[in-house]
Design goal:
This protein is mostly helical. The chain is 40% helix and 4% strand. The radius of gyration is 28 Å and the shape is elongated. The N and C termini lie far apart (77 Å).
């Protein structure tokens, strides 16, 4: 004769933990501690975390940095467009600026990300006389 589960909760041999008195005690202590009754609070918390209203927001940074060689090769209009886009996104508190202002050709062919960040002279696009962190 095959074993037949009485309920989905009876998944282990510890029948005491799945008895009615045990479940009543579990619900009573959950209600007292503010967690509510059963899974309702847990499900509500999960739904809140999945909400599209909780997307990541940016810190409102307005600095734009690139390697000095790339800044020198850009036209004045390109630099202004990039800086204005970053300032606009930062003022709105957005996490990213528009992808239309992505810069092509800033990294040399074959260079790794480490090379790009450590070996390049990073400057601010709005004022190339200042280093990136200034």
């Amino acid at each position: 004769m095959a074993y037949k589960q009485k309920t989905p909760m009876m998944h282990c041999a510890a029948t005491v933990m799945h008895s009615k008195p045990w479940n009543k005690m579990r619900n009573r202590t959950a209600a007292v501690s503010g967690r509510g009754d059963g899974n309702k609070i847990g499900l509500a918390h999960a739904e809140e975390k999945r909400s599209p209203l909780n997307k990541q927001k940016g810190g409102g940074t307005t600095k734009t940095c690139l390697p000095a060689s790339k800044i020198r090769s850009m036209s004045k209009e390109q630099r202004e467009k990039l800086v204005n886009s970053k300032k606009s996104a930062g003022a709105k508190g957005k996490y990213k600026r528009s992808s239309k202002t992505n810069v092509k050709g800033a990294r040399k062919k074959g260079a790794t990300l480490r090379d790009w960040f450590e070996k390049e002279d990073w400057r601010r696009v709005d004022d190339p006389s200042k280093k990136c962190g200034e």
